[in-house]
Write a structure and sequence with these properties.
By secondary structure, the protein is α/β, with parallel strands linked by helices. The chain has three domains: 86 residues, Udp-n-acetylmuramoylalanyl-d-glutamate--2,6- Diaminopimelate Ligase, Chain: A, domain 1; 212 residues, Hexapeptide repeat proteins (UDP N-Acetylglucosamine Acyltransferase, domain 1, 3 Solenoid), CATH 2.160.10; 29 residues. Helix content is 16%, strand content 28%. The protein contains four helices and 40 strands. The strands form six sheets. Strands 8-11-14-17-20-25-28-31-34-37-39-40 form a twelve-stranded mixed beta sheet, with helices on one face. Strands 9-12-15-18-21-26-29-32-35-38 form a ten-stranded parallel beta sheet, with no helix packed on it. The chain has a nine-stranded parallel beta sheet with strand order 10-13-16-19-24-27-30-33-36, with no helix packed on it. Strand 39 and strand 40 form a beta hairpin.
Length: 346
């Protein structure tokens, strides 16, 4: 698709600085953009590329200056660039409207209006599929499952019996929702006896779950993902965990049983949470942290084990100085030994 910079500035409610007739043919990262493409600058770390970029136009913040560059100044360059992605690159088509003849529906399944159910989908008895839902090939839905209107379930997803999914939920390929929680009791002979996992999983409205995520059903009650939460790929959510509304979690994070994550938290990749703890609302957790205790609202933690961010950064700064400090200590020890030897010789 082709758009003039004037049209894009109007679409984004931005201020155009430069030629309004320049034609934009696509989007690119600032360090890779070519003539005819538009890029954006949102992170100060990339400002060094602004003078070098070959892009024909750059989305920038309202106060940004760049002599000789065609700019579109907006309130939030990152969000505006995301908006343009859907303009230049429309989403992939949904599966065909209707129920494919190769789909298998159990007894007393309820199907809403405007559904798209692909070949190979299996839906268990007494499940309820809401309006305008898309189920991609090889989706497996157990008995007594409810899926709200407007949800999209990608290929290979397994949704086990009794799970409740809200409206406008997106579940990416091969996620497993409602598998058994990891519950075993030691026996006298040194083995383990499986504890029945009789609870469920509740996923509220406007949640997105990444590819390969696993969300375990509760032992009793419900594992719950509250409205607006976003989970990246390959995340493990154990039994009876609660993820607060609008919390975002990056890939490969693992959350142990009965842990409660607050609302509007940001959790980076490869974070590990011990069980039966609470992370307060609006907290930030740095990548590869190990969270072993509860933290209050508005915490910023990092490290293994996780400690307040400022303290961890000071520790890391000190650790980088350790080789030089060790050399200094060796010199001081030798100096003391020399002085001591001279004193003894006298």
């Amino acid at each position: 698709m082709l758009y003039r910079t004037l049209d894009l500035a109007y679409l984004l409610e931005g201020e155009l600085v430069g030629d309004p007739e320049v034609v934009i043919t696509g989007l690119a990262k600032i360090e890779e953009a070519e003539p005819g493409e538009l890029t954006f600058l949102a992170n100060p770390k990339y400002e060094k590329y602004l003078s070098e970029t070959r892009a024909s136009a750059v989305l920038v913040s309202r106060e940004q200056l760049a002599e000789g560059k065609l700019l579109i100044r907006v309130d939030d360059p990152y969000r505006c660039f995301a908006k343009l992605l859907s303009v230049f690159y429309p989403p992939e088509p949904l599966v065909e409207l209707g129920v494919h003849p190769a789909a298998v529906l159990g007894k007393d399944v309820t199907i809403g209006q405007g559904v798209r159910i692909a070949a190979g989908v299996v839906i268990g008895a007494h499940s309820v599929i809401g309006d305008d839902i898309a189920l991609y090939p090889q989706v497996s839905i157990g008995e007594d499952v409810t899926i709200g209107a407007g949800s999209i379930i990608r290929a290979g997803v397994s949704i086990r019996h009794g799970v409740r999914i809200g409206c406008r939920v997106i579940i990416q390929d091969n996620a497993v929702i409602g598998s058994d929680g990891f519950g075993f009791a030691p026996t006298q002979d040194g083995g383990y006896e499986k504890i029945p996992q009789v609870g469920t999983v509740i996923i509220e409205d406007d949640v997105e779950i990444g590819a390969g995520c696993t969300i375990d059903r509760a032992t009793l009650g419900a594992t719950r993902i509250e409205s607006g939460a976003k989970l990246d790929n390959l995340i493990q959510i154990a039994h009876n965990v609660v993820i607060g509304a609008n919390t975002v979690i990056a890939a490969q994070t693992g959350i142990s049983g009965s842990t409660k994550i607050g609302k509007n938290c940001m959790i980076a990749g490869q974070v590990g949470f011990a069980g039966h703890l609470t992370l307060g609302d609006r907290s930030l957790v740095g990548a590869q942290s190990g969270v072993s205790k509860s933290w209050p609202d508005n915490s910023k933690i990092f490290g293994y084990p996780a400690i307040p961010l400022g303290e961890e950064l000071r520790l890391q700064a000190t650790m980088r100085k350790l080789p030089e400090l060790a050399k200094t200590l060796d010199r001081l020890v030798k100096k003391v030994e020399e002085l001591s030897a001279k004193r003894n010789a006298q």
